[in-house]
Structure formats: structure tokens, C-alpha cells
Amino acid sequence: MLCALSGCLVGPRYHQPAALQEQAPASYKEAAVHFKDGIGWKEARPDGVMLRGDWWRIYNEPALNDLEGQLNINNQNIKQFFQNFMAARAQADEAVSQLWPTLTANGSALRSASGQATPMTALMTSLSLSWEPDLWGRIRNQVRAAEYNAQLSEADLENEKLTEQTQLAVLYFQIRGQDALEQLYQDTIKADKIALEYNENQFKTGITGEISVAEAQTTLENAEAAATNISLLRAQYEHAIATLVGRPASDFSIPLKVLNAEPPPIPIGVPSQLLERRPDIAAAERAMAAANANIGVAYAAYFPTITLGGEGGYKGGPTFAQLYNAQNRFWSVGPTVSEELIDGGLRNATVHQNVAIYNAALASYRQTTLTAFQQVEDYLAQVRILSKQLIQQRAAAKSAARSLDLEMSRYRTGIDPYVDVTTAQTTLLGDQQAVINVQVQEMTGSVQLIEALGGGWDRSQLPSPWQVSAPPSAAETAIQH
Fold this sequence. Notes:
Layout: H1 2-5, H2 19-23, H3 29-37, H4 62-74, H5 76-97, E1 102-112, E2 120-131, H6 138-204, H7 210-244, H8 274-277, H9 279-300, E3 305-316, E4 329-338, H10 346-412, H11 418-452, H12 465-469, H13 474-477
Antiparallel strand pairs: 1-2, 2-3, 3-4
């Protein structure tokens, strides 16, 4: 009868919500706009193909690949989330242990005397066996909740990895952008020095006035000051990358390399795939499953608890012969049944609390999914619009360079004053700087698009309940130094 009852499992059955997946549109709106436009960045095709594994390799940047490898091993935030996952696995093992009987050994020795009597020694040894059959599924629901929470912790770990990997890639392309700006300003400073020397010679020969020398000097000094500021930002980005890869900032550096990359084609798939690709969505769904299991735990409190117990042992004097004396041996076997008759509404309140926790988890899951759709649309729009802006900005810089050449010709023939040249120089420098800034934004936007798509992760990589309950290895449980 107990074996039959142990198959009972009270509480609601869990069903993963399918409403949002069914309501997902056939394609992303911004992708459709992009292909109507047909200008700039291109999406990888076909739709069913998605990124797998080390997503950053799509950029074909060996230095970035090396840094990402260091991050995955040495990043302290990732290590912290991994240990949180190991703790969640241990909690799942703790829950499983409740399904098994407990066997306890007890032993005692007592020596006593009264008045002038000879001291007596009494020995007692016993074994106690206790088992609570899981008649209503309370323990099994606790096990399920713990296993789902361990899966949630693993999804959190994968989400943290993706966040750190994305941050590193963004910083990497920002550094490359700073290197491009530094190269631009070094070229500008070189040209400004030549212009200053030319104006000084013109002034010495009386061809031009001192005002031209002052304007050329001002232009050079402004360029030098701006170049100095670029070094500050680059240093800060470099220090941030050092921390991400687990290195002291004092002995870490990244060689200079000018940004000359374009965002690669990225397979974005269809919106319905997003629910299987994002680790934060998987974590939100596992939180729902755990909350549902806890409702079953709360319902089990309405039913009686039966504990099967037995005890046997020896109680008597110190001699070995007395061990075989039947009068000194004892045993007892019997069940214990307990049921709360009056609890002041505690069980009702506990059930209502867990139902509310489940409903909150459901709302969180839906909000996480909606946010995911929004982020993909946002970064699709960013990459699409910036790629078009970059084409326009490069055209503007090309026109500004032509305008400067024309203005220099007019100045050298005495038609225009040098202040017109400095105005054209400032316009060209601003346009060239804008090209680099838009290029950096486009590259970092593509990285954030990959993050919004879930990187190279998918739900099939989530460990099963059996896997999270498996005994950890010695290396995983070792104290680290």
C-alpha cells in the first residue's frame, strides 16, 4: 500500500508557457525594413542558421580570440557564478538524500556507584533505522524544485559568460577605434606642422600677415590637445579589459591596431527561435518550473506524514558473555503517523504564497521574452541605420577633403585668407572623426546584436535534472587558493 501511495504527486502539473512562442511574428520587423532598403550591412542567410559556440570568431580578429579565451578561464565574475551553480547542484543532492532511509548508530558507557557499593559499568549500543515514504510527493517536488533551481543557476552562469564576453568585445572595438583616432590625429598634427611652417615662411617673406601664423599655430595646438585626450580613453579601456581577463592592469597592454573592420553578416534567424537561444529566458522559465514544484510541496502539507522506524541493540553489563543474554538485547519496530489538525490557516497561506510566487515568475518570464524581442529589434535597427550613416559620413568626409584642397589653392593664390583654410581643416577633421565614431558604434552594435540573439548558446546545452544531481568531480569540489 505504501509503495502504491508513494506514486502519488499532489500539486499542479507544470506546462511550459507556449503563448509567446505561438504569438511570435514570422520575422523581425527591422530585418524586413533592412532588406527593402538594401544599403549597408547584410544579414547572413538562410534564416535557420544560427551562431554556434565561440561567436566572437565571426569577426576574424586573432587578438580578440585570444582575449576571449583568457576571459573564459580567468574572469572572476564567471568563476563566482560557476560556484553558485555548484552550490545549487549540492542543494539538489541534499534534496535527493531525503528519499533514502537514515541509519544511525549510538553507543554509550556509564559507570556509577551509590554509597559503599561497588561501582557498576553499563554499556548500551543500538542501531536506529528511519524512513519517511514520500506518499504525497513532498520530497519529490522538493527534489524537482532543487534540480530546476540548479538548471536556473546554470542558465545564469551562461548569461554571465555572454555578458562578460560581450563587454570584452565592445571594449576591444572601442580600443581599435581609439587607435584609429590616434592615427588620424597624428596625421593631422603632421599636416598642421607643415602648414605652420609654410605660413611662417610666408610671413617672413612678407607675403602673408602674422594672423595666418597665429591661426595655423592654434590649429596645431588644438589637434595636439585632442590627441592627448584620446590616450586617456584608450588607457581606461585597456585597464577594463585587463580586469575582465583576470590580469592586473599594471602589467597588461594591448598593441596598437587601427580599426578597419566591417560588421560581418550575422545570422539572426526568426523570432520564435529566440526563446531557445537566450540563457536569461531559459533561467526565467526554470524559475517558473521551480515555483510550480514548490506549490506541490505546499499542497503535500495537507496530508498526514508516516515515518517507518526501527531500533535494536544491547543494554547491560560490561562482560562479553552478557552480550548473548537475551534479557540485555532489545528491539522495536513500528510506524508513526502525524497530521496537523489545527494550524491557524498556515497551510492555506503557504499554498497561496507559492501560487503568487509562480504567477510572479510567469510575469517575469513573459517580460524577459518581450525585452529580448525588443533588444533584437533595437540592435538590428542600430546596425542597419549606422551602416547607412557610415556610407553617408564617408561621402561627407570625401567632400570635405576636396573642399580643403580647393580652399588651399585659393589661399595660395591670395584669393582667400588663411582663416578659410582653418575652417575647412576643422570641417574635414570633424567628418573624419565622425566616420571613425560611427564605425565603432556599428561594430559594437553588431556585438550587442549577437548578445541579444543569445550568442552561440541554445537551450539544448542546459544540463538535464539527472546531470545536475550527479556527483561532482574532485576538482569541482576542491577548495581553491
